[in-house]
Design a protein that fits this description.
single chain; 610 residues; Glutamine Phosphoribosylpyrophosphate, subunit 1, domain 1; Rossmann fold; 8-stranded antiparallel beta sheet; 6-stranded antiparallel beta sheet; 18 helices; binds fructose -6-phosphate
């Protein structure tokens, strides 16, 4: 899970490549490097750690040249070190790579037997040697890459330079993302759209099993077998500013505050307010299909898994369809029972999470229809799905997912309403209430964000030293409790647990003392009374209790040490509001602790490894 970039044009390429890498740093930040054609040879600069270390190396030893490739790494094969940093070089060849070559052991053995000196622990260096060997046999760069790729098993997006062909980059893709950016006087490539936005909106998405030769005047795409591929570029209307911090201290904070906009964009054109319904053509199911679904199986990882858990409540309550939720990594390879009448819904921000991708493929192979809920256009999961119901959150750069979580909730709720209407399980009055409720959400979210920001920041300041924090919720608030705990863990490194509130007395209550903040989600819903009792149980054990409750809930106010209020909304809509103070809480705790909020340790935004 790394980021790669490439540039062929007339400008000095090093600053453009570094700028692209900065926008991709969320994909990994163990080391970074560039390779540039410079006075008849390829010159490389690499540095361990964040991009600023590479910039320092470039300040000390600049890299002139107009054609080059770059890489930001999240270590998979070999620890983070300068030797393991990309680009990797063999003879006249330099390679950057995102992915994992599965047959690396066998390739390493073969190359060593053939007399190759392999200096790094990476699988990528092996690719450089394979291409070099083909060039030695007299092939041009394109044919050499094509031949070398035949030897590879696994996932890759690669960009390759040869000092013998200084006007081009050869790129190829299998399972890892790769986008070509077509500029006026230059051609770029990158692992993801934000790296290209400052330079062009005209983008060509490579498919698996395709490669391209990139030159200043454009790109020629072929299949790995050499067949020409005709594909129109797509216009991407994300603005570069959307991919930048827009004045916020961190991307995460910006993305938390972007949620009303993200929800608005995600709902746009999908709410059928006149008919108390959802325009559901994107879900790719006929009315008959909708009636015939026997089970929904939701597959996802991490935060997307928490959204899926909320989705189960929606689908069971509104569409009365039996629904199970699986952590994708636990589903795959288990030989789980999947039947042709099942609808599999794969939920993923990136659309590239390997576990979710493979799990969805396994389910599809067993005859299920796959619908995906994904944020990144044309990523791997949508490409293998029968249909994709995109979230329109825009690029999410902070490693901790926020706006994508709430837009996933929106799509899952819309899916449940659409199915419920077709299956006759949701009447027009109730559907109308929910559709109207959704339409009002953006301004309610805005109010909650602005109304609670200071209060939550104060709470975070007060409890910043707490070593453990518990999050409790029932019903739809349970996945939100899990999400609150995950957010706190991943960015502030504070131990946090999310529990079903009713489960507390079966064990976790032993953790409670007067040093443990317990955050209880208790919006006015069908679980309210019981959640209130759980709050009282925590209070009786001297916990510090922070309630997240509906405005005017005097009982919650009485027992909470601190209370954060949200407006009264339908039960199904409360998660969109209760999650906001939890996101803010984790953000401020992390910020006060001074952690790297946008790039927390050991994590990466897109997890394309198992
Ligand atoms: C946590 C987070 C991760 C992702 C998970 C799945 O804030 O972002 O837990 O949710 O890695 O990623 P996607 O949604 O891209 O499949």
């Amino acid at each position: 899970m790394c980021g790669i970039v490439g540039y062929v044009g007339q400008e000095l390429c090093a600053p453009i490549l570094v700028d692209g890498l900065r926008r991709l740093e969320y994909r990994g930040y163990d080391s970074a490097g560039l390779a540039v054609h410079s006075s008849g040879k390829i010159e490389v600069r690499r540095a361990v750690g964040k991009l600023r270390n590479l910039e320092k190396a470039l300040d000390e030893r600049p890299l002139p040249g107009n054609v080059g490739i770059g890489h930001t790494r999240w270590a998979t094969h070999g620890r983070p070190s300068e030797t393991n940093a990309h680009p990797h070089v063999a003879g006249p060849i330099a390679v950057v790579h995102n992915g994992i070559i599965e047959n690396h052991l066998e390739l390493r053995r073969r190359l060593k037997e053939a007399g190759c000196t392999i200096v790094s622990d990476t699988d990528t260096e092996l690719v450089a040697h394979l291409v070099h060997a083909e060039v030695e046999r007299g092939k041009d760069l394109e044919s050499a890459v094509r031949a070398a790729l035949r030897e590879l098993e696994g996932a890759y997006a690669i960009a390759v330079l040869s000092s013998k062909e200084p006007d081009r980059i050869v790129i190829a893709k299998q399972s890892s993302p790769l986008v070509i950016g077509l500029g006026e006087d230059a051609t770029h490539c990158a692992s993801d759209i934000p790296a290209l936005l400052p330079y062009t909106r005209s983008m060509l998405f490579l498919e698996d099993g395709e490669m391209a030769v990139i030159e200043q005047g454009g790109a020629v795409v072929t299949t790995l077998d050499g067949k020409a591929v005709e594909r129109e570029p797509r216009h991407i209307d994300w603005s570069p500013v959307m991919a930048e911090k827009a004045g916020y201290k961190h991307f995460m904070l910006k993305e938390i505050f972007e949620q009303p906009r993200a929800i608005e964009d995600t709902l746009r054109g999908r709410l059928d307010r006149a008919n108390a319904d959802i325009h559901g053509h994107e879900v790719g199911l006929s009315e008959e299909d909708a009636k015939g679904i026997e089970r929904v199986l939701l597959l996802a990882c991490g935060t997307s898994h928490h959204a899926a858990l909320a989705g189960r409540y929606y689908l069971e309550a509104l569409a009365k369809v039996p629904t199970s939720v699986e952590i994708a990594s636990e589903f795959r390879g288990r030989d789980a029972v999947v039947r042709p009448g099942d609808l599999v819904v794969a939920v993923s921000q990136s659309g590239e999470t390997l576990d979710t991708l493979v799990a969805a493929k396994e389910a599809k192979a067993k005859g299920a229809k796959v619908l995906s809920i994904v944020n990144v256009i044309d990523s791997a999961i949508p490409r293998m799905s029968d249909a994709t119901f995109y979230t329109h959150a825009g690029p999410e750069i902070g490693v901790a997912s926020t706006k994508c979580f709430s837009t996933q909730l929106a799509n899952l709720l819309m899916l449940a309403i659409w199915l419920g209407r077709r299956r006759g399980t949701l009447d027009a009055a109730r559907a109308g209430e929910l559709v109207e409720g959704l339409a009002h959400l953006p301004h309610q979210m805005k109010d909650v964000l602005s109304g609670t920001r200071q209060l939550v920041a104060n709470l975070a300041r007060r409890y910043v030293e707490a070593r453990d924090v518990l999050f409790l919720g029932r019903g739809l608030s349970f996945p939100i409790a899990l999400e609150g705990a995950l957010k706190l863990k991943e960015i502030s490194y504070v131990h946090a647990e999310g529990y079903a509130a009713g489960e507390m007395k079966h064990g976790p209550i032993a953790l409670i003392d007067n040093k443990v903040p317990v955050i209880v989600l208790l919006p006015k819903d069908s679980h309210h009374e019981r959640s209130l009792s759980n709050l009282q149980e925590a209070k009786a054990r001297e916990a510090i209790v922070i309630g997240i409750a509906t405005e005017g809930d005097e009982a919650a106010r009485e027992v909470s040490d601190d209370l954060v209020e949200i407006p009264a909304v339908a039960e199904e809509l409360a998660p969109f509001l209760t999650v906001l103070p939890l996101q803010l809480y984790s953000y401020y705790v992390a910020d006060f602790k001074g952690t790297d909020v946008d790039q927390p340790r050991n994590l990466a935004k897109t997890v394309t490894v198992e």
